[in-house]
Specification:
The chain has 408 residues and is of the alpha/beta class. The chain has ten helices and 17 strands.
């Protein structure tokens, strides 16, 4: 229930009691936990006695070739494999399996739900929303750099999210589209808050999106976004020091390169020298995933925003954007995680069942390869909301879990 509705009903009840001449009961002082919970935009309540589960999906990037804006933009083969009626084959079957087999309490989607250039009618987005609503599970999306290319415009897209019953989304009057907070509540306590943010950076945004005045081309947070989350987190921490803080957005900051450096990542020539953390004998406990490409569009080059996030106590950052990266590592007490790509649209990683090699490609390289698609599962401790052994779920429909020990 939206907070505004709850407050409205409460006010009507109070008015009714007064009108009937009944004496108002004494107002019970709210606890600090209750005050902290009221600060977040949305809450997901999880029953006691079990670990909450959050599922990160990333970059479905649905391409409806039937809405191709420019002739021959894709070419004959891609026009066929990404035709309008292939969304079940390329996307929905994988997300459905991932959700059903991981049973999350909350689904976060770290951007690029649709390739907006191929959704000027908006039907790919509305169809996806209807599909996600079918799970009857709270889901929280953020904008990527491709979503607001659609000529339907970002305001229209935001309205579709806000109108969906199970979609947690709010378009504040801040830089970007869709900046909001989602709290995980268990046993009356605010265990963790996810700050869902627009990292901006859509260089090909449509004129219709640009018209709202806060959709911007340059990548990175606006100062108003920073001020908003800084104030809210500061207030929450004053009331509930044990609340954990996560950030989720689309495009990664430069600090991700520093985090991955412990595994030899130098943010140069990665395609020729990929890093498969799962095949490293000396990997740190809890680290996993693949680095197949240099960081695209890294921002916060002087770390000013990152240092501010550190001061606020962030312990995890979840991003998307780079389809060939799925690495999740801990660095200076913070988990830096690329989400596993959740469809076969556009570029993705393919696993060679004969050699154990991973290759990034648009389209299947040859018959020996299976697509690596699914999601990244983020269990939370029922005790204090801390991260508890996240892992990648790879779809059985695509080939299933890979035993990397077979290829060491």
């Amino acid at each position: 229930m939206k907070k505004t509705l709850a407050l409205l009903l409460c006010g009507m009840l109070t008015f009714g009691l007064c009108a009937c001449g009944e004496e108002e009961p004494p107002v019970k002082e709210k606890t600090n936990d209750e005050k902290a919970i009221e600060l977040v935009d949305f809450t997901v309540e999880v029953e006691t006695g079990r670990d909450p589960i959050v599922l990160q999906l990333s970059d479905p990037q649905i391409i409806d070739a039937g809405q191709e804006r420019y002739p021959d933009r894709l070419g004959g083969t891609l026009d066929t494999i990404w035709a309008t009626d292939t969304v079940e084959e390329n996307c929905y079957q994988y997300i459905r399996e991932t959700v059903q087999n991981t049973n999350p309490d909350l689904i976060i989607i770290t951007g690029d739900i649709v390739y907006g250039e191929f959704d000027d009618a908006g039907t790919a987005l509305t169809d996806f929303i209807e599909f996600m609503e079918g799970f009857d599970i709270p889901w929280a999306p953020v904008f990527g750099n491709h979503d607001n290319e659609s000529t339907k415009g970002a305001d229209w897209q935001c309205q579709q999210f806000e109108n969906a019953k199970n979609c947690l989304f709010e378009q504040k009057e801040l830089t970007g589209n869709g900046n909001y907070s989602v709290g995980i509540v268990q046993d009356g306590k605010l265990k963790r808050v996810f700050y869902m943010l627009d990292s901006n950076g859509c260089e090909a945004l449509s004129a219709e999106s640009f018209e709202n005045g806060h959709t911007v081309e340059h990548v990175g947070f606006g100062q108003d976004q920073i001020d908003w989350y800084t104030e809210e987190i500061t207030q929450i921490k004053e009331l509930s020091k044990g609340t954990k803080i996560s950030f989720a957005y689309h495009i990664q900051q430069k600090v991700f390169a520093d985090a991955y450096a412990q595994y030899g990542f130098i943010d140069s020539g990665t395609r020729d020298n990929p890093i498969n953390i799962d095949r490293l004998a000396d990997k740190a406990n809890g680290d996993f995933g693949y680095l197949g490409r240099d960081l695209q569009d890294p921002w916060d080059l002087h770390y000013d925003i990152w240092w501010g996030m550190q001061d606020l106590g962030v312990d995890s950052v979840f991003v998307g954007h780079e389809h060939e990266n799925s690495a999740s590592v801990e660095y200076n007490g913070v988990r830096f995680q690329f989400g596993q790509k959740s469809s076969t649209y556009d570029r993705l990683n393919w696993f060679n069942t004969q050699t154990g090699a991973v290759v990034g490609s648009t389209g299947k390289p040859n018959s020996a390869f299976i697509p690596m698609v699914g999601g990244t599962v983020i269990p939370l401790s029922k005790t204090d909301g801390s991260l508890k052994n996240p892992y990648i779920y790879l779809c059985e429909n695509a080939g299933g879990e890979i035993d990397w020990s077979d290829w060491v």
